[in-house]
Structures are given as C-alpha cells and as structure tokens.
Amino acid sequence: MDFRFTPEQEQFRDSVRRFAEKHLAAGARAEADGGQGGALIDAVIAIETVASVCPRSADVVQAGNFGPIRVLAEYGTPEQKQKYLKRLLAGESVISVGMTEPEAGSAVTDLQTAATPEGAGYRVNGSKIFTTHATHADVILTYVRFGPGVGGIGSVLIELKAPGVRFGKRSKFMSDEEWAQIYFENVFVPADMVVLKEGGFKKQIAGFNVERIGNAARSLALGRYAYDHAREWAMQRKQFGRLLCEFQGLQWKFAEMKMKLDAGQLLLYRAAANADRGFPSAEETAIAKAFCNQAGFDVANESLQVMGGLGYTQEELVEYCLRRCRGWMIAGGSIEILKNRIAESVFERSFPQRPGD
Ligand SMILES: Cc1cc2nc3c(=O)[nH]c(=O)nc-3n(C[C@H](O)[C@H](O)[C@H](O)COP(=O)(O)OP(=O)(O)OC[C@H]3O[C@@H](n4cnc5c(N)ncnc54)[C@H](O)[C@@H]3O)c2cc1C
C-alpha cells in the first residue's frame, strides 16, 4: 500500500500548517481555537499538522470531523442536518455523544437510558457519565434503549437546554476538561429527533469507528509533539559537559520513540486510507487505536523524562500531552476492549465476555 500523500494532500497539509502557524502557535499554551477538515485521511492530516504546532487545537479538528458530527452527517435526516449540522460545521455549535452510563462502561450494550413512546415522540429517562464537552454542548447524540437487548438500542438528539435535562456535580478529568453526570428526567423527544431507531447499534458503532480514528490520530500527534520538543531539548541541553543527545541511554529512548511513532503512523494511515471508501474496518481501527494510544502515551512519557524537571512543568505542553494521551487509552473503547476485538479477528470467532453467554 502506498502511503505517500497526493499532491493535493501535500498542498492541504501545507495550508493547514500555514494556518496553524499564523493563528494557533502563539496561543498554544493558552486556549483552543476553531477549525474544520474534509475526508477522513484529510482530517487525520489536519490533526497531525495542527497538533505539531498547537496540541490543544487538534481537539477542534476532532470535534468537527470525527465524533458524533460524523454519525449525524451519515444517518441524520435532511431536517436534522439543516437544523444542527450546518451550525456544527460552521463551528457555531457543539455536539457530544452520550453512550457511557454508571452501570454501562465497556459493556455499553447494558445501557439503560430508555425512550418510551408517548404521543408524537418519546419520553427519555436515564443518565450518562463522562460525556466529553457536554457542559459546553448544545445537543447530545444520546444512545437510548427503545426495547430490550442489543437490538433495542438506537439514538436520539437531545438539546441540553430541554426541560428535564439536568447536570450533576461538575468535575474534571485528569486532562483538566470538565465533565458532569447528565440526568434525563422525563425529557420529551419529538419523533423527528430520532437519528437511529432500534436496530441501529451496529450502524452507530460503525460510525463510532471514525471517532476512534480521530482518537488514535490525536494520541499519535500529541506523542509526536512531545517527541519533537524533547528532541530539540536533547540537542541543546548540556550536562556533564555534553549534549543530552550524546548519551547512549537517551539515544536509545529516541530510537524506540521513533519506532513507535512510525509504526503507529502506518497503522493509522492504513485504517484511515481504507476508510475513505466507507467507514473504517473494525479490525484495522482497533489495531490502529490500541497501538497509537499506547505509543502516544509511551512517547509522551519518555519525552517528559528526557526533558527532566522542565518536562514536568506547565512551561511546556509535554506534561499536557501525557495527561491527554492517558485518557485516550480509556475513552472510545479501552485498549483492553480493543485487544478483545483484535483477538476475535485472530481466531475468527467471538468470545462473549458475560458469564453464561
Ligand atoms: C477522557 C475520557 C473521555 C470520555 N468521553 C466520553 C464521551 O464523550 N462519551 C461517552 O459516552 N463516554 C465517554 N467516556 C467514557 C468511556 O467510554 C468509558 O470510560 C470507557 O468505555 C470505559 O468504561 P468504564 O470507565 O466504565 O470502565 P469499565 O468498563 O468499568 O472498565 C474498567 C477496566 O476494566 C477493563 N475491562 C472491562 N471489561 C473488560 C473485558 N471484558 N476484558 C478486559 N478488560 C476489561 C477496562 O478496559 C478498564 O481498564 C470518556 C472517558 C474518558 C476517560
């Protein structure tokens, strides 16, 4: 497979870099800003390029290209797209995805949030936790149960200002991002806010694999950002009268980091390039995400070590990269759950995780 970029992709990458350098570099230690992308491989290029200048802003490319926005673009009705997608794509609105519940984490199909038919719509009751951006979002793509079993799962759009939606205690992730439990108490959802009816779970997970690609891309991009900074540091910092890069103990760290970044890059491009012909394959996505999550974290961690005390401070974004990468090892399908998926491909059979299955 040829992973060289086309001339158009090279041009796109250069223009993203020029934009990031002009608008994002100076504020990289302060705040995230806006931005959009196109096809999946282009969006991966955009994340990598933006993150190389400003790791925080890579989140904006993720939010605008990989997450629930992609599910809405694929499965939403023309009216839903008109009402929500336009503003989301213009960067004027934020959407979150609510899958995880207190009793349904890795076992997401255990979710209990229920949509019960009533009049011209549904009453939704339940709760979601750990929902990224929810406290700033306008609308949440909410996984709900229309009926029993996996086949009973679908999704609805719920405006976060709708009557009956309530946030619990505000808390923070290790990344410093805010989250709060969301409660849905008799929330009325009109029928035209249904995105996928019962039976839609497989489609949703297919769409969610796109999110996983964005998650993997950010892990790798932030690992690379940390690596680039550690490399620069190793070429200027002297101890014992020698540059750090002249110590073999550190050279080997860089060799290992480089091997992990390059391997992750190939796995990521394979999954993203193939996905351009549709949603990415579950197996290639699982391999790319599990590898890039681990690689990004390991590389950020070793980069921090190479930078010594400075790396541990907030004068640099290396500690930020480490904290962010840690979360992606859990979010969007933990490394363990992805390895379970990979093992199913290896042995060409499923391994039910529940007792008695
Ligand atoms: C930074 C961050 C952002 C998130 N954003 C969102 C969001 O936007 N929307 C949303 O819905 N959710 C979000 N989540 C929640 C995330 O999807 C869940 O945390 C994740 O699915 C794991 O669920 P859990 O936390 O309940 O852990 P559990 O499911 O309780 O798992 C605990 C540990 O056991 C392991 N484990 C569980 N089952 C198995 C098994 N069968 N085999 C091997 N190991 C297993 C897990 O890998 C994990 O290490 C986010 C989480 C984080 C950390």
Terminal Cα separation, in Å?
39 Å
Biggest sheet descriptor: 4 strands, mixed
How many beta-strand elements? Answer: 10
Mean pLDDT: 91
Helix tally? Answer: 11
Shape: globular
Order of helices and strands: HHHHHEEEEEEEEHEEHHHHH
Report on the structure:
With 357 residues, the chain is of the alpha+beta class. Helices cover 49% and strands 17% of the residues. It is built from eleven helices and ten strands. It has a four-stranded mixed sheet with strand order 1-4-5-8, with helices on one face. Strands 2-3-7-6 form a four-stranded antiparallel sheet, with no helix packed on it. A two-stranded antiparallel ribbon has the order 9-10. A hairpin with a 2-residue loop joins strand 9 and strand 10. The longest helix has 34 residues. The radius of gyration is 21 Å and the shape is globular. About 3% of the residues have low confidence. The structure holds flavin-adenine dinucleotide. Flavin-adenine dinucleotide binds next to strand 1 and helix 11.
